[in-house]
Specification:
With 280 residues, this protein is α/β, with parallel strands linked by helices. Helices cover 29% and strands 32% of the residues. It contains ten helices and 16 strands. The protein has a seven-stranded antiparallel beta sheet with strand order 6-1-2-5-4-3-7. Strands 11-10-9-8-12-13-16 form a seven-stranded mixed beta sheet, sandwiched between helices. Strands 14-15 form a two-stranded antiparallel sheet. A hairpin with a 4-residue loop joins strand 4 and strand 5. The chain is globular.
Length: 280
């Protein structure tokens, strides 16, 4: 059992939950995740550890209510309620070191898993430039938290309602074309965003890491749902990653595989996953 300590709506359909999970909090490292099961009838949902506090024994989860289980967790569970299972930490931690100038790119709720990694880079003495992107200003999260651990924060929105109008790749490309020395780029967000970030950095030979946590299902390497091609080899995002060399990821194959269950996902979202159409 993991008790919910705080719960806050921080963007449309996006909730921040602090839960009591001392065994996870004491062991986890930036870049790792947990598997959550709300109750005995729940599916297993992988969620990135967005923050952790070893002193209080708590971890922070950022949850977007998009599927049956995440909607149930966000809409039906409140402060004081117990989540049945929070298992972790899982996955390989992020590669840490003093690289020099690190640019972290977070798209949408991808900002949350970026945060503990960027904080660790900052604590190790790296110069951290954070680029945060979203469709609209209402979807920009954790801007203040990112500013506290960054040397510079750049906000982009598709419609220009906050920061500069455009995509996260725009300021990144400008920095590279201006000759700014960047030693590492980390991208977490929608697959298409990470694909575009890798395409921008590759001609400049900048080491680029993509976190493929968005495609995980089971989280233990047993279901095969997170299988990806990296450097021509099959990898599993949950046990071999979630972070990989973005220039080696076969994003075309990854995008195609993400479409495989689009119809089923649409049915589950529309009916709540409780009708016969999902099984069919």
């Amino acid at each position: 059992m993991a008790k919910i300590i705080t719960k806050e709506l921080i963007a449309p359909a996006v909730y921040e939950m602090v839960v009591d999970a001392p065994l996870v909090a004491h062991k986890c490292q930036p870049g790792q995740f947990v598997i959550v099961r709300t109750d005995e009838f729940s599916e297993r949902v992988p969620l990135t550890i967005a923050d952790f506090n070893r002193g209080t024994g708590c971890i922070t989860l950022i949850i977007q209510a998009v599927g049956n289980t995440t909607r149930h967790l966000c809409e039906s569970f409140n402060v004081g309620d117990d989540i049945l299972d929070v298992v972790g930490p899982l996955g390989r931690p992020s590669e840490m070191g003093k690289f020099g100038t690190v640019v972290v790119v977070g798209g949408g709720i991808g900002v949350a898993p970026v945060y503990p990694i960027a904080r660790a880079y900052h604590e190790l003495g790296n110069k951290v430039i954070s680029i945060i992107g979203a469709r609209d200003k209402d979807l920009v999260i954790w801007q203040e938290k990112m500013a506290a651990i960054s040397d510079e924060v750049i906000i982009t929105t598709d419609n220009g309602s906050s920061g500069r109008k455009g995509f996260v790749t725009d300021p990144l490309r400008e920095m590279l074309e201006a000759g700014e020395k960047i030693d590492l780029v980390l991208a977490i967000g929608p697959v298409i965003m990470m694909k575009n970030v890798a395409a921008v950095t590759k001609p400049f030979g900048v080491k680029t890491t993509a976190s493929l946590n968005t495609i995980m299902v089971d989280g233990t390497g047993m279901c095969g749902g997170c299988r990806v091609m990296v450097g021509g080899e099959n990898k599993f995002a949950c046990v071999d990653g979630p972070e990989f060399d973005a220039h080696q990821v076969d994003f075309a194959n990854l995008v195609m595989r993400q479409q495989m269950y689009k119809n089923q996902e649409s049915l589950e979202y529309s009916c709540g996953g409780h009708c016969k159409c999902v099984e069919e």
